[in-house]
Description:
The chain is an alpha/beta fold. The chain has two helices and three strands; from the N terminus they run βαβαβ. It has helices at residues 22-34, 45-53; strands at residues 14-18, 38-42, 62-65. Strands 2-1-3 form a three-stranded parallel sheet. The longest helix has 13 residues, at 22-34. The termini are far apart. The model has no long low-confidence stretch (mean pLDDT 89).
Amino acid sequence: MTPPAGGGTIRPGRILVVDDTAFNRQLLARLLQGIGHESVEVGDGMQALQRLRDASEPAIDVILLDIVMPEM
Length: 72
């Protein structure tokens, strides 16, 4: 993993990828995992809300969200 400008270190994060297109989710997940992050992928906004509300799940650090999706 490349250190950020300024010499600090990057802590791997848990990233929620929300996209209704499976190809986009898979591509983003592979890119994120390739740089050391953990990704959780869901196909719509309702699934994303359920994952975020689930107390048994580890915390999500970042949400990467497709803004043009059906329903939500």
